[in-house]
Amino acid sequence: MIKAGIIGGAGYTSGELLRILVNHPKVEIDFVFSTSQARKPLTAAHPDLIGETDLVFTDKINTDVNVVFLCLGHGKSKAFLENNEFALHTRIIDLSNDFRLDNDANFNSKVFVYGLPELNKNKIVATKYIANPGCFATAIQLALLPLASGGLLENDIHINAVTGSTGAGVQLSETTHHSWRNSNISHYKAFEHQHLAEIKQSLNSLQKDFGKEILFIPNRGEFTRGIFATLYTKTSKSKEELVDLYQTFYKEHPFVWVTAEDISLKMAVQTNKCILSLEKKGDYLLVTSIIDNLLKGASGQAVQNMNLMFGLEETTGLKLKSSGF
């Protein structure tokens, strides 16, 4: 069995991670570290786990586990690893943005691989250190990677995406209260969202001359989970050629599905899937991309990476199904 530890166990992403790992056939959860919840049962922070586990939060760390997941706030993973040294054999999967960019990937003799399996599967299999992608970044990259692989990103890309309130994390802020979020919508960080840097980095790895604008408008939705992203750009390729390109690109990737039919967010929520829909209107290609921000956009993808790192079938423990309503 793979002995796993979780650092920062009280948040939304760690809650999803626990729900997956308590039912994963090859994993034993060794410890769940949380200074705010130490000595309380996991169900104090994640009450839906009642009957699933009797584990208790701890403020002690076992540095000899097989894998550790860092579910810490952005900027906190580096500080944690500076103060806590794990065994050489311990795999580390970081869910923050601390190591996603090439300039940050080398840290204390550790080289973090960007953990988007549909882009870097071979590197993920061979590494011990993973920088898990951001949620918006995952939805947007999966919508664009096939185009970049064919050198087809020749024009500006326009993106409008809506995320659920869980994307803001468990800590309350002015724009996460139910009374503010309910029956409301707003955009934020227009044209300058932090995930743009990792998106551009990935696209440039496939299309070296890519230098067009990515005009990204992120929106806060009134629902709790999921990302619904629409992207459009110009291309001379026909719809049939594009559908074939996408289906071929993702043929060996079990969590990405391509269709020419209309899609809706609930098709992907509570799953580790990314579902892509392609439409062509004149010279414009419209790609719709849907994911669950807490699963394919965070914890599900982290377990997908863990499976690859330990030589398991990629889908192990992740055959999650949407309710559809």
Structure characterization notes:
The protein has 325 residues and is of the alpha/beta class. It has 2 domains: 2-132 and 298-309, Rossmann fold; 135-291, Dihydrodipicolinate Reductase, domain 2 (2-Layer Sandwich). The chain is 24% helix and 23% strand. The chain has 8 helices and 15 strands. A hairpin with a 2-residue loop joins strand 14 (274-281) and strand 15 (284-291). The protein is globular.
CATH class membership of the largest domain = Alpha Beta
> Approximately how much helix is present in the residues?
10-25%
Largest sheet: 7 strands, mixed
In the CATH classification, which architecture of the largest domain applies? 2-Layer Sandwich
Q: Quickly count the helices.
A: 8
Q: Provide the domain count.
A: 2
Number of strands: 15
CATH superfamily annotation of the largest domain: Dihydrodipicolinate Reductase, domain 2
Global mean pLDDT: 93
Overall spatial form: globular
- Class of secondary structure makeup: alpha/beta
Strand order of the largest sheet: 10-11-9-12-15-14-13
Give the amount of beta strand, in percent. 15-25%
What do we call the CATH topology of the largest domain? Dihydrodipicolinate Reductase, domain 2
Radius of gyration: 19 Å
The end-to-end distance, rounded to whole angstroms, is 36 Å
